[in-house]
Amino acid sequence: MSIMEIKKMGEPVLKQICTPVEKVNKKIRTLLDDMAETMYKYEGVGIAAPQVGVPIRAIVVDIGKKRYDIINPVITEREGSIVDSEGCLSFPGVYGEVERAEKVKVEYTNRYGKRKFIEAEGLMARCLQHEVDHLDGHLFIEVAKNITTGSKKDE
Ligand code: ZN
Question: How far is the CA of 105 from the centre of ligand 1 (A)?
Answer without folding.
Answer: 19
